[in-house]
Specification:
binds copper (II) ion; Immunoglobulin-like; 152 residues; 3-stranded mixed beta sheet; alpha+beta; 2 domains; 1 helix
Length: 152
């Protein structure tokens, strides 16, 4: 009869506890910090053209394209309270995409589309930074989201 050795049992229990803690941490961060878990979408060439789509007055889509050593669009203007879906891809090497103040963190990978959703509740300038070393101009690779009150 197959019986688990007591050390094997301990290893399995601690493994299960670690996995449970890991899943709990992700769900906790998603709720507590309102961080979105990025999605991978099937590749579509439409996303490789940088643009900002206005869906309605507070809903936007940004097709962000990273390349050595810039993001396009470099400046994105949205009103306060906007919910922005970022669709991210790269034209060359792997780049990072980090909006530190919003806990938005993705990788830009050639031939892949990553998506995250960010809500901008407060006015201000939010820097988008490449945080994945991508070559000699890496330290200058930035873009910004400018969140302002709409014109009356
Ligand atoms: Cu980069």
């Amino acid at each position: 009869m197959a019986v688990l050795d007591k050390y094997e049992r301990r290893v399995l229990i601690s493994l299960g506890a670690t996995v449970a803690l890991f899943i709990f941490s992700i769900l906790y961060a998603k709720g507590r910090y309102k961080s979105d878990v990025p999605e991978c979408l099937p590749f579509n060439k439409a996303y490789t053209e940088p643009k900002v789509n206005k869906i309605d007055s507070t809903t936007y889509q940004v097709f962000a394209v990273a390349q050595m050593w810039q993001f396009q669009p470099a400046e994105i203007y949205v009103p306060v309270g906007s919910v922005v879906d970022f669709f991210l891809t790269s034209k060359d090497v792997v780049h990072g995409f980090d909006i530190a103040e919003k806990n938005a963190n993705m990788m830009a990978v050639y031939g892949n589309i990553n998506k995250t959703t960010v809500k901008f509740e407060k006015p201000g300038v939010y820097n988008i930074t490449c945080h994945e070393y991508c070559g000699i101009g890496h330290q200058n690779m930035q873009a910004r989201v400018i969140v302002n009150y709409p014109e009356q």
